[in-house]
């Protein structure tokens, strides 16, 4: 393994803006943004015990992806309400390669670019072929119990991942779901102390 930087093939930025949900026209659209990077998997087709290179890459990539996602919404980092992360490995890789990208080091650069964040980052991972879709889970950045922000955003890259590639995705929102009304902790009630409430 000689590469010290990820070999990036493509970066996608996707914005989903909901103006009508069901029969209700929203006074203010709800918006979600996801940024995905496609890059070569250095461990495709082989078993590697030490995955720390992917930890290192996730810090750099997480910074890039989060900044791009926030910029796509045109808001200040502090105005981000929800966040989430996901990864897809091509068929010559492993789910553990996705885990190595998402869990040890990715949270720090995401939080640094959204004005903090007390709650755990929801995550999803899978193996797949080009065009595989993944539901990027989303939750309020400061309080996991805010039901109005339990959500997801489908992300699919038409030509990725190839067998020897990885896709890493970061998502952010400027709001919760359209017209939420299932109760639970509200945004106004967040204490932001333990990541739950």
Outline the secondary-structure elements.
Elements (H helix, E strand, L loop, with lengths): L7 E14 L2 E17 L11 H22 L8 E8 L5 H8 L4 H6 L10 E5 L5 E8 L10 E6 L8 E9 L24
Helix pairs in contact: 1-2
Descriptive account of the structure:
Helix 1 (52-73) crosses helix 2. Helix content is 18%, strand content 34%. It has helices at residues 52-73, 95-102, 107-112; strands spanning 8-21, 24-40, 82-89, 123-127, 133-140, 151-156, 165-173. Strands 1, 2, 3, 4, 5, 6 and 7 form a 7-stranded mixed sheet that branches. The chain is an alpha+beta fold and 197 residues long. 39% of the residues are buried. It is globular, with a radius of gyration of 17 Å. A hairpin with a 2-residue loop joins strand 1 (8-21) and strand 2. The protein starts with 7 loop residues before the first strand and ends in a 24-residue tail after the last strand. The protein has a single domain (8-189), classed as 60s Ribosomal Protein L30, Chain: A, CATH 3.30.1330. The model has no long low-confidence stretch (mean pLDDT 95).
